[in-house]
Amino acid sequence: MADNLIDLPTDKQPLRQEELLIVDKLFNNHQSTFQKLLVEFKEPLILGILFIALSLPMTDSFIGLIIPGTKNSSIVLLVIKVLLFMTLYYVLKNFAFIKNKNKKSN
Questions:
Q1: How far is residue 36's CA from residue 22's CA, in Å, rounded to a whole number?
Q2: Is the pLDDT of residue 106 over 80?
Q3: Which ranges in the chain belong to alpha helices (H)?
Q4: For the whole model, what pTM was predicted?
Q5: CA dist., res. 67 & res. 61, Å (int)
Q6: Of 33, 64, 70, 83, which one has the fewest beta carbons inside 10 Å?
Q7: Is 44 in contact with 75 (CB distance < 8 Å)?
Q8: Would you say 39 and 52 are in contact if contact means Cβ atoms under 8 Å apart?
Q9: Closest-CA residue to 53 (of 92, 94, 13, 16)
């Protein structure tokens, strides 16, 4: 069986600043409902924006200017758009991860 928290040994020293930050980070319940929703829906929001951007006829025209073979073949255009979608999603997702990692190291 596990020990009761009351029975565990403790010291009388107050917590250091870094320990307080760790506890605050672990038990952060200070977010508003909007902030919680934003965190939960960040990924689907990014996916939706990318999908809409790549579905626009303007995007088809731009890709047709860069890669002329896409004007005659809708399958080639679709493959290019899928590759672009996957690449942009990977970059955006990892950019946020790298940005958060840099904030923590500073």
A1: 20
A2: no
A3: 17-26, 33-40, 42-55, 57-66, 74-105
A4: 0.59
A5: 10
A6: 33
A7: no
A8: no
A9: 92
Tokens of 94: 């990892």
- Max distance between CA atoms of the chain, in angstroms, equals 76
Give me the residue spans of the domains in the chain. Answer: 36-106
Q: Distance between CA 52 and CA 71 in Å, rounded?
A: 20
Token duo for residue 60: 């088809």
Yes or no: say if 13 and 52 are a contact pair by the CB < 8 Å rule: no
Contacts of 59 (CB under 8 A, 6+ apart): 53, 81
Whole-number Å distance between alpha carbons of 54 and 28:
37
Q: What is the mean pLDDT of residues 59-73?
A: 91
Q: Which residue has the tokens 């590759």?
A: 83
